[in-house]
Write a structure and sequence with these properties.
By secondary structure, the chain is an alpha/beta fold. It has a single domain, classed as 3-Layer(aba) Sandwich (Rossmann fold), CATH 3.40.50.300. It contains 8 helices and 10 strands. It is globular and about 80 Å long. It starts with 14 loop residues before the first strand and ends in an 18-residue tail after the last helix. The mean pLDDT is 89.
Length: 242
């Protein structure tokens, strides 16, 4: 889906819900924000300065971390190895470098505990975890390494009620750490539990943006389904003057 004139802002310590029906352009926008795609026009600014992201690694260097629906975890590896995937710590013995498993285990446990995620054993393989536990590891990793922005793509899909409560709690923890959070979901109720603002995309364009308290779930559903902005949310027309 090509995007046209999309305007998106995010502040530190804010949760922005990005909503839209299938094909609205959410996935394309994520890939632009994370350097998977380059901009063909327009401008992206970070801390008020224009940036052009050439790769996901450049986005991570800025402090932008993304948790996709597939979580990007390797089930056969341990929690700690997944936590440091691509960022492995090493120690040197003579001319050789070895994984510093002890340090990674300790830092993984400490970092997850800091946002309320308690693991039994950092050496436990990820395939032994429930769906919610895997989601928590992916989010915990992103919160730890994403010093500025956290993008969550459908983080509560296919989770139990209890696991969903925990994930929403992790979003609040990220907000408390002053991360800016982009929360993509089809669950409108979850939006009203954690989001400060709502941006709705329709066919690759901005349809509307509202503060969460200023709209209702029915209003949001109405717009997501492509029925336009409800009349009571439109600005009042100027009064005719005689």
């Amino acid at each position: 889906m090509a995007l046209k004139d999309v305007d998106l802002t995010l502040q530190a310590g804010e949760v922005l819900a990005l909503l839209g029906d299938n094909g609205a352009g959410k996935s394309t926008l994520i890939k632009l924000l994370t350097g998977v795609y380059g901009l063909s026009s327009g401008e992206m600014c970070f801390d008020g300065r224009p940036v052009r992201l050439g790769s996901p690694q450049e986005a991570r260097t800025l402090g932008i971390e993304t948790v996709y629906q597939d979580l990007a975890l390797i089930p056969e590896l341990s929690i700690a190895r997944n936590f440091f995937l691509g960022r492995e710590l090493t120690k040197r013995t003579g001319p050789f470098h070895f994984l510093d498993s002890q340090t990674m285990d300790g830092q993984t446990t400490h970092a997850l505990n800091a946002i309320g995620i308690h693991i039994r054993n950092p050496n436990e393989p990820v395939h032994s975890l429930s769906g919610g536990e895997r989601q928590s590891i992916a989010i915990g990793r992103a919160v730890h390494f994403g010093s500025r922005v956290l993008i969550l793509d459908e983080p509560t899909s296919a989770l139990s009620v209890g696991e969903t409560r925990k994930v929403l709690g992790y979003i609040r923890a990220a907000k408390a750490k002053r991360l800016g959070v982009v929360f993509i979901t089809h669950n409108i109720q979850h939006v009203f539990e954690v989001a400060d603002r709502i941006t709705i995309l329709h066919r690759g364009e901005n349809l509307a943006e509202f503060s969460t308290p200023s709209v209702t779930p029915d209003d949001v559903a109405h717009m997501i389904m492509g029925q336009g902005i409800p009349h009571h949310l439109l600005p009042d027309p100027p009064h005719n003057r005689s």
